[in-house]
Amino acid sequence: MDMPSSLTPMASGGAHALQPLWNLAAAAIQAEALALALESGALDRLSSPHTAAALAQVQGWHTANTAHWLELLWAMGLLRRTGGADPAYLLETGAMRYLHSLSPESCGAAWLFRLRSLRHSATLLPGLVEHGPAGNGASAPWAQGNAEGWAAAARAQIGQEQRAVSVPAALAVLGRLPETVAARRMLDLGGGPGWIALALLRALPTLQASVFDWPEAVAVAAHNAAESGLAARFTALGGDLACDGIGEGYDLVWCSSVLHFVPDAAAVVAKVFAALEDGGVFVCAHAEVDDAPEAALRTLPYYLPMRLMGRSVTRRGVIEALLRQAGFARVERLESCGFPLAPLTVLVARKATA
Question: Are residues 153 and 293 in the same domain?
């Protein structure tokens, strides 16, 4: 007999309707497999070919289970495999580039940092949904938190990710704007370790750049500028974005994933508008929650914990409205999947000339 379509156990393409949920449950195994590779040092060893027996010997591991684990990493696209019954495994090009600890673009520590953070957030989720942030013992949503921990992250994990991922993404956006080449003074608002501003200083010899962030973070940025030989054209501005000044006379302001962390985004946008010269441009890159479920799912798993803590991750169009409200004459919308975590909406807001 014919079954009602709502009871048919097959989704489009022949997969069972439950397959996405089974995949979700199994994703934890993939994450643990990669975490083991990074934390044990085995991933670095795989920069040269190893059979399971050879790797197990140097790691002191069980040979048969090492073979099973390597096969999963191969299936995940992290390793290439050669040979027959006793294959050798070697890092794929992308894994070598972004996960080997000696690569200048290594993000292994940054990935582990993200994994631990998301794991911790997952343990808090039931309490946050049931009782809210205060009932879960959470701090105020706009508090700085552990200053030393934030500075350490800026030096290490956040610095890794910014150099390897955010800098190329930001330069790809800014390189499309004529105002970038013409800029004399720029500000990286909430720029942490400062690598985006420093990349612009290398590319534009006449540019002066500032980074505004918590004092502990901009101390890291100042150190990076000195180490890069760019201190003469670099200024570190430490403070609280919610209540402190950010300077003035800028031709270009870059800001990515910062408005999520301030109590009054409209006030910060107005502050940026005032800090720009006439004809200046504000480039604002943030995650938004789309109205389409497929697009929203690319954002919400990363940003739901922040929203549950009381921070702001807005629906599509809200930040654009704030820019127009502040007085920006033209706002252009770009999309970018090049930044860490979720795709960001890049808004290019131009201040009218006098």
Answer: yes
Q: What is the DSSP string of 169-204?
A: HHHHHHTT-HHHHH-SEEEEET-TT-HHHHHHHHH-
Task: Please indicate, yes or no, if residue 161 is contained in any of the structural domains.
Answer: yes
Claim to verify: residue 139 and residue 81 sit in the same structural domain:
no
Residue 205 forms part of a structural domain = yes
Query: pLDDT tens for residues 23-66?
Result: 999 999 999 999 999 999 999 999 999 999 999 999 999 999 99
Same domain, yes or no: 266 and 192 = yes
> Three-class SS of residue 76?
coil
One domain, residues 84 and 133: no
| Residue 114 placed within a domain | no
Q: What is the pLDDT, as a whole number, of residue 18?
A: 94
Count of H-run helices and E-run strands, the chain:
16, 10
The low-confidence residues of the chain, meaning pLDDT below 50, are: 1, 3, 7, 142
Sign of CA dihedral 208, 214, 215, 219: negative
Quick: pLDDT tens for 226-257.
999 999 999 999 999 999 999 999 999 999 99
| Residue 33 lies inside a defined structural domain of this protein | yes
Among 229, 237, 162, smallest CA distance to 193 is for 162
Residue matched to tokens 């934890």? 28
Q: Are 158 and 279 part of one and the same domain?
A: yes
pTM, two decimals, is 0.87
Residue 199 sits in the same domain as residue 78: no
Read off the CATH number of the domain in which 318 is found: 3.40.50.150
Between CA 46 and CA 255 the distance in angstroms is 38
Contact call for residues 73 and 34 (beta carbons, < 8 A): yes
What is the pLDDT, as a whole number, of residue 12? 55
Beta bridge partners of 51: 88
Q: Which domain holds residue 58?
A: 19-99
Residue 250 · residue 230 · CB < 8 Å: no
Domains of the chain: total: 2
How many degrees, rounded to 5, is the angle at CA 21 between CA 19 and CA 26?
95
